[in-house]
């Protein structure tokens, strides 16, 4: 339980202790990380809202706690997390492991949900900023002005809570709250094709001081030389120190600006980091990530379809396994027997498959697979589905917009090309915790594919639709009688003998010798 | 209902149908044609209006001003095209990349079933190049397409220039919510088919394509642009797609609204807007436009590269710049503004275009005839077949009940047993006619090599001539197989056969009219009179001529003449015949390359049905 709230936000702290949360990861993202153009993401998140939580083993009713938690978070972050229910919650078995201290990994304590339709905007940013000890009043956070942050190609804000060791001996446990914000600015449209930037240009603010509560406040600028060319870019003002680290299998050099060092603000009152490219870049210089993926819906028509996922391993000689997690809503009925995994023209048998079929209106499909990706290959995974016809009250307000299928998740230990040495934890805590490497040769990557938009068969919901329904009903009702009439032969029936009175009268008439009535 | 269950009324009704059958049929047929001719009149053709809320009330302010840049791109492209002797793939990729687009290329190859002589294609190799403008803060779930065909010669250079200039302009804007794909397709429709199949990862035809593709989610709308001059006098819009599919009317409304906003002259079917007022010339003009649309839709042939999008439920139109001798010319800036406005409106869409009509006929761009109003015309034509079938049915059943009643009346005399032809008698003609249809469908393409070995003709000619030969030979087939069966030669025999043929025809045309009204209507208008009139007892030569005039092939020939007449470029007999041969070959190609249903429908459905009627004529 959290005991004091000098730095830790009270709202989250009470949540953690009241609901028995052991680990909480919430990401709100607008846009999609273009791996091909931007390289490997530092921390990717799927479009929309993503929430995954590990609960303490003491929690008896996990589903109830999960429901309560998503509702409270919805209030804290002004996001529609309250739409998380059993139809979009899954319990993955292999894809999500606890990141902090954990005794056991009983996956029944895990809940994972994605809301791909969630739109992220300022009302989500403001509560996120309020969690910072200095708010957006001082320190690095002064840069976070909503009108600039949302004038970008990609915006992802996240909150991660996990238990960690308090010190090296690990006798006591502390709670770690990490807030991350990833923004991609499009310098192309504002800079006439040039990629130069400065803090002021991007945020229309400069840095003046550090947050007084901070023990560390640094700006890292990636100045890694590409193709052994040193003099490709220029950073002003020159940084006091340079940090070298191996991040995601790649050797990177960072210029570091320490806001706490008094020398930084000696010459000028504010820090405005600027970066200039010495010559324009070519398309060939873009690094191709070792692992990237693409997903799309194939086929046409409103009856059936196919979800195809292409996973690329561009490593020249190392094969590695990847865990794929697919969550598909129930209204797409997956045909699991059509699941095919093809690599280099041959079938690739997954070494582990966990499939949980959907239940209509109750829970989604969950498909987890461990697939070996051979070196320098493309793996194509396809599975066919049929589109269900919903009840007419189940359609959302814009039914013809389509229905979202959340991103699939790829988790892999990617072998690095350069040899990695274990970075000293004490020296650079930020990098080791952000980019952990399990051993010297590989690093962990979690990738998300594109969300999909699928059209379901949709009634018209308009006046002609009602007319057609009505006409069809009338025709259906009339059909039987028409058919009956057209196929039956009619005979003129003899008039009946009449009632008792008439019969009596006829008997009397017979006696009298007059013709009957 | 009461009318039918009351025996007296029933008898009266059936007497009416029997006695007044011919006048009723005639009346119904004339009503159908009359209704169709009345379609361009204002009460049946109301003004168009925008139904989609997201594109309606507000107007965007266009800021495109790169007309000069478009022209310089066009010149540069023309130079590179000439140098490369085809599509300058590398230059396009470089240019698109420098504009800040994500560039992809898609090579494809295809071998046609037989050489296409008009376009000189047989083994086709090409490359599509496209650049994707990624919308900021959107996750590539929706996309719009602007496509330009890379045509041989100097055609469409300006269209490409305008597309690149638009791409440059669009890249600098921040309001995009949908990705925009700028596509340059080689070999016009073939390239488009290859691209669409690769994008949707399906294989409908035999196009082979390779390469990793960039995708941008579900495509919501597409506009194909054709432009071959630096200035234009008007913009023509092509709507009809493959198999007569039409885009949502709102897309056309959008185009029309922006043409009016920018003062552009826009035409449809190459016809100027209808003169105002209810005068006779206005009516004649509207009717011409309508008829041209009906003919184009009936052909099932896409009018422009947009036509293949419609299969994937992507609303699409083709815009074609026309440069004629009119005085007012518009430069590329105005065209660019129009396109910019359309794309920004499409960008605003929350849902796929679905609010407005998908089935309509256009007597002009500002008026439309909806499905509810044009269907009665077809209904009246089909009613003729139903009435005739009812007449035959009642005559046949009367004979039966007559026999039965005689038996029931207690006639103790030996009942003369008239040999009753069973349904078995129907089997030989049905089988023979459908076998002829199957031969018509398969033999021309399969037998082309045999034909070229034995006759001095090229493959394409061989295919078309085989087609005609089988078609004509179908009429000369020995249609007296039924005589082998007992009692086949009686009156009842042909009546049953005609009844079946009429119902079969009505069913086919009814289904067809739901998919492609124009085709259904034209076939009904030509086949119904002959089908209703045919009998082995009447004036055989006259009926034979009527029947031959109603055959689908003759209809095709006549519609070709009619179309040229409406386009005010009448064709002579020889030219018409050449066009006819070309249309046959093209119809086959359309089926094999894009999956058009016209050829299989005629070969496997309409032609056998017509042969059944021919059979009736030759019954004795």
Automatic annotation (TrEMBL), chain A:
InterPro entries: PIG-T. GO terms for cellular component: GPI-anchor transamidase complex. GO terms for biological process: attachment of GPI anchor to protein. PANTHER family: GPI TRANSAMIDASE COMPONENT PIG-T, GPI TRANSAMIDASE COMPONENT PIG-T-RELATED. This is GPI transamidase component PIG-T. The lineage of its organism: Eukaryota, Metazoa, Chordata, Craniata, Vertebrata.
